[in-house]
Design a protein that fits this description.
This protein is α+β, with helices and mostly antiparallel strands. The C terminus is likely disordered. A hairpin with a 6-residue loop joins strand 1 and strand 2. It is elongated, with a radius of gyration of 25 Å. The chain has 2 domains: about 220 residues; about 160 residues, Beta-Lactamase. The protein contains 12 helices and 5 strands. Helix 1 packs antiparallel against helix 2 and helix 6 packs antiparallel against helix 7.
Length: about 400
């Protein structure tokens, strides 16, 4: 199969899947830019090659293929940024530095391949091709083998969801593909094992495509899975901005009773004390949003009337997005009336006696804030951060 036919197939499949995913993301109001950019750049690379072949046939493949690979390199870098946003608030210094360096090397070498005169030494062109290919392969290995696959394996171990298992396999396929391409390019450059070069090269091209297509299909079928991260969630709390001691909504989880017994009184007072220090001492006009150490992360999102807080073992940018979505839905739901204040040990708290996945429990619940929690679009669109990722919420005994 020649390059033109391959790009038509790749561009058609990815283009169709991207349109479907984008429409679904807009409908459900998901904001996952890195993920979308990753696949848009990949499809754009194939689309660029097809367009140039059809309308500018005089442009040689020695120009078209390097430009297409530039798109692919940027696509892989956005894929890394997407995976990073699922795991942390900040940059993962070592992986980010290496992926960025290899991206720059790839882009530079491909430009050299394009602009080096054809009359110059072919050794120079070959060398830049090799370095560009190896840089792209290492970028793919870091993203898929060292970041993506371990993350979804941890997620599967925690949630036992089939989506996590499929994504882990998809990233392993992509990683194996880039390892194959690395070997094929090395064999080609050093002129060794010529018998195996074609087979390894074809396998290296095929496996990442299978992996990428599988990834986007999984997220099309389960778009809310973006919010599933392998983290213990201790509490989700909403307080009144006018009186931060007033807890208007709270969910508690049975996996950490020793924390639950303390969080009622300590958390609102802690937040108010810290914010008072920043306002009074440092004249800060906004509230502190993130508190964290190596063991616990606390994320706070401020709304017009209420504030929402999540306390977990780890946090990420995607968790901030989910919390913001939840608070927005909460304020819209209680725009006209205030939610009832939950009482201690009442059904307004999510405890081990509350089955979150039970429709009958939702219908029979007498508390407005529990009813909201189950029926809100937060449950439909961002539920994974609170429920689906955490098996202990499903009335499990530990």
């Amino acid at each position: 199969m020649d390059d033109f036919t391959t790009n038509i197939i790749l561009g058609s499949i990815l283009g169709t899947l991207i349109v479907i995913f984008t429409v679904k993301a807009l409908i459900t109001r998901h904001n996952i830019p890195y993920f979308i950019f990753s696949f848009v750049f990949m499809a754009s690379g194939a689309g660029f090659f097809i367009y140039m072949r059809l309308f500018f046939s005089h442009v040689p493949d020695t120009v078209l293929i390097p430009i297409e690979l530039m798109f692919f390199g940027i696509s892989m870098f956005f894929n890394y940024l997407f995976l990073e946003s699922l795991q942390t608030f900040t940059r993962l210094r070592i992986p980010f530095t290496f992926t960025f360096i290899f991206l720059i090397i790839q882009q530079f070498c491909l430009n050299m391949v394009i602009f080096i005169p054809r009359s110059s030494s072919t050794i120079s062109v070959t060398f830049f091709w090799f370095v560009a290919d190896v840089s792209y392969n290492v970028l793919g290995i870091i993203t898929n083998l060292l970041v993506g696959m371990p993350f979804y394996i941890r997620n599967f171990q925690r949630s036992r969801k089939i989506s996590a298992l499929i994504l882990a396999i998809a990233f392993s396929f992509s990683a194996l593909g880039f390892i194959s391409l690395f070997l094929a390019d090395t064999f080609w450059f050093f002129s060794i094992f010529p018998v195996f070069q074609a087979f390894i090269f074809n396998m290296g091209n095929l496996l990442p495509i299978i992996g990428f297509i599988t990834i986007i299909i999984v997220y099309i079928l389960d778009i809310h899975y973006f919010y599933q991260i392998p983290s213990d969630l201790f509490v989700l709390m909403v307080t009144d901005n006018e009186n931060e001691d007033r807890i208007v909504f709270q969910s508690k989880y049975e996996n950490s009773p020793e924390i639950q017994s303390k969080v009622d009184k300590s958390l609102p007072n802690l937040l108010e004390s810290i914010n008072r220090v920043f306002r009074d001492t440092y004249l800060a006009k906004t509230s502190v949003r993130i508190f964290m150490n190596e063991e616990v992360s606390m994320i706070r999102e401020m709304g017009k009337r209420y504030s929402a807080v999540i306390v977990s073992t780890s946090g990420s940018r995607i968790m901030i997005s989910a919390l913001r979505r939840f608070l927005k839905e909460f304020e819209v739901h209680f725009k006209a009336t205030k939610p009832p204040v939950p009482e201690m040990n009442s059904t307004s708290k999510l405890n081990s006696d509350t089955k979150l996945n039970s429709d009958s429990e939702i219908r029979n619940s007498s508390s407005d804030n529990i009813e909201f929690y189950h029926s809100s679009t937060f449950l439909d669109q961002a539920v994974a951060i609170v429920i689906a990722n955490f098996p202990f919420l499903m009335n499990k005994k530990h």
